[in-house]
Amino acid sequence: MAKDIQNKMKLYGFNNLTKSLSFNIYDICYTKTAEDRRKYIEYIDEQYNSERLTQILTDVTNIIGASILNVAKQDYDPQGASVTLLISEEEVPLYVLDPSCNRGILTPIRKNIVGHLDKSHITVHTYPESHPQNEISTFRVDIDVATCGTISPLKALNHLIDSFDSDIITIDYRVRGFTRDVDGYKHFIDHKITSIQDFIAEETIKRYNLIDMNIYQSNIFHTKMKVKELNLNNYLFEIDEEDLTPEEKREIIEKLNTEMTEIFYGINLD
């Protein structure tokens, strides 16, 4: 690994390393009937609509120390939402700002919005999902944070994890390109990292089982997380645990565990 060149090395020009952080976050829920599944998707769409997602990504932008150039957002029919932010490492003066950029200021007239950063961006897409032959519903959130310069998406890692009900989390982090110091020497990474887990809060790590798959020579890091404790009440929709028989509880827990295991390992168990 290279030195922390942001603080210790003088660069020639702009630090044009691209640092990309990608998430898949899954929330799992037991929905017994077709009506329960319909209501669950309605609930998810209400809880994680484009307005709330925009606020989450705005908070991320502030955490990593960037400035918003543009925001685009959209709620979809029948379900789901997307938000994109274009951001900059430093605030861009108004006289050079492209007229298409709204600086994150949304008006009633502009219903469809995209967010941009200077050579950097943040996106989020939601995917509520169910199947008529399965009593388990899932909610997936895809988040991508890509930055250049000294700002780092890793600073927002814990905020993103805490912003959603996260049963399964898949995280990819990669550093692309290179930047040169004043002597012309190429640096392919500008910070120390052995695992994404280095940047996850200790209290969060205690709640999950984690697996790493890293390719150090290519600066590619991959971490999977699966929640340890399965408190049944947290996974029931329109049902109370005390109304279930012991056998029903066992069957539901088995279905939840099967769904989580399949998603975590990327395989079908049947």
Summary tags:
270 residues; alpha+beta; S-adenosylmethionine decarboxylase; eight-stranded antiparallel sheet; two-stranded antiparallel sheet; 6 helices; 10 strands; globular
Structural commentary:
- The chain has 270 residues and is α+β, with helices and mostly antiparallel strands.
- It has a single domain (18-176, 193-264), classed as S-adenosylmethionine decarboxylase, CATH 3.60.90.
- It is built from six helices and ten strands; from the N terminus they run αβααββββαβββαββα.
- The strands form two sheets. It has an eight-stranded antiparallel β-sheet with strand order 2-3-4-5-1-6-10-9. It has a two-stranded antiparallel ribbon with strand order 7-8.
- A hairpin with a 2-residue loop joins strand 4 (120-131) and strand 5 (134-148).
List strands and helices in order, with pairings:
Blueprint: H1 5-8, E1 18-30, H2 34-47, H3 50-64, E2 67-75, E3 81-88, E4 120-131, E5 134-148, H4 157-162, E6 168-176, E7 179-180, E8 186-187, H5 202-206, E9 208-212, E10 220-227, H6 246-265
Antiparallel strand pairs: 1-5, 1-6, 2-3, 3-4, 4-5, 6-10, 7-8, 9-10
